[in-house]
Amino acid sequence: MSLKEYVYCDYAAGSPCRPEVLDVFNEYATRQYSNPGAHHPLAYVAKKHLWELHERMGRVIGADPREIIFTSGGTESDILALRGVMSNAEAPRNELVISAIEHHAVLLEAQRMEQAGTKVYYVPVSADGVIDRGALRKVVSERTTLVSVMYANNETGVIQPVKEVGEIAHAAGAKFHCDAVQAFWKLPLKPKEFGADLMSLAGAKFGGPKGTGLLYNEMTNRISPVIVGGPQEWGYRAGTEDLSGMAALATAMELAEAEREKIWPRVAAIRDGMEKRIVAGLGEHVRINGGNAPRLPNISNMSFLEIEGQALAIELGEQGYCVGLGSACAPGETDPSHVLAAMGLSWEDAIGCIRISFGPDITEQQAERLADLCVANYKALKGLG
Ligand SMILES: Cc1ncc(COP(=O)(O)O)c(C=O)c1O
């Protein structure tokens, strides 16, 4: 099977870079190569571009150019947000609150801080994967420095009540960081509208190149840099600016935002149709994790009971479909997901899960065939007639 023939259903792990984005990247890499910090005519042009690119990235999310910190992706943005805020924290306000279903970029950084002595609260979620607001209210207090809750979960696609989370954080005088890596492209994302003080994005999830991302940081919020050295990115991220990466990211953001309303309703209908077809074929042998909660339009997380999701994913791969196994970034591939465990799934049910995440190129026929293959493979793996 040639690579082109595979049906790619793993957009939550990464999307193809758009050719027009790559053109912009190349254009900047080969023509706008001057260091914007230098002092000659070409450097002054680069400096002008630098400002304009921050302006363009900011415009898409309703932010000032000085509120955009270019990064290498979601992980760096998350760590800059957590470390940047928490390293300024002083008693009596020095506690961190995150949800139990955060991406490992947030979770492991929080655990690292905990080992170093920071008090960290992990707020539970419901069986549908939505943060428990009652539990959140109980732990957020005048001692809280930062609340970090994602916009939409990368494994289930479940959308979190981020506006309410922001209100709870602010009522206690704490800052709110939102990891919106999965939500951008699929949902309108204006941090000032939903109340985030910091927000992470990753270009590779919406048609940008790998190695590009940003942290939105509200103008009055002073954070400490993680990468220190030169004064670049408002002093928050040292190192010669990557103008080509920024131009590519700005272009990918504009293209993603422009097409958002047009493409995703169709994808959601295809995803729903596929799930219905699988449930019709397998009944109680399959569960849609987070299926009763509001979800992103493209993600489906299903537990196929009493088989291993990995076995099913391997079969589907041989039949031409690339699907995921929960998080692509989980340390230790066979560990059951911490997200599904937080939702109350048993080890057996969590191990039987696969994550299908469609892109705008999915067709109804491809999704129907995928559903039929899931049903047939499950029956074969279980030895059902
Ligand atoms: C919700 C979420 N946060 C953070 C990340 C990490 O982003 P990156 O791989 O760009 O570092 C991911 C990647 O899958 C993600 O889904």
Short description:
The protein has 385 residues and is of the alpha/beta class. It has helices at residues 19-31, 41-60, 74-86, 104-115, 133-139, 162-171, 191-194, 243-282, 309-318, 338-342, 347-351, 364-382, and strands spanning 7-9, 68-71, 95-99, 120-123, 144-148, 175-179, 198-202, 213-217, 286-288, 299-304, 321-323, 353-357.
Bound molecules: pyridoxal-5'-phosphate
Radius of gyration: 21 Å
CATH topology of the largest domain: Aspartate Aminotransferase, domain 2
Number of strands: 12
Range of helix content: 40-55%
Structural class: alpha/beta
Instruction: Tell me the strand order in the biggest sheet.
Output: 2-8-7-6-5-3-4
Shape: globular
CATH superfamily of the largest domain: Type I PLP-dependent aspartate aminotransferase-like (Major domain)
